[in-house]
Amino acid sequence: GCDGSVLLDGSASGPGEKEAPPNLTLRPEAFKIIENLRGLLEKSCGRVVSCSDITALTARDAVFL
């Protein structure tokens, strides 16, 4: 789907969306970029910005460039 669940890691109860067959084509570098951005924003804003927000802003800026 078109949501942020692909950013969730797996847990003891099962694999995450990253490991689902349709998502295996996603580049690990993209996940690293989003995680780095999340860390920077969390330092500045606390935990009020979600990974879905970061993904939306990143996609917007990438299209603009």
Automatic annotation (TrEMBL):
Annotated spans, Disordered: 1-23
EC number: 1.11.1.7
Top-level taxonomic group: Eukaryota
Reactions catalysed, as given in the entry: 2 a phenolic donor + H2O2 = 2 a phenolic radical donor + 2 H2O
Gene3D superfamilies in the cross-refs: 1.10.520.10
Enzyme class: oxidoreductase
Keywords: Calcium, Heme, Iron, Metal-binding, Oxidoreductase, Peroxidase
Cofactor: Ca(2+); heme b
Co-factor note (free text): Binds 2 calcium ions per subunit.
Protein family according to the UniProt entry: Belongs to the peroxidase family.
Protein's UniProt name: peroxidase
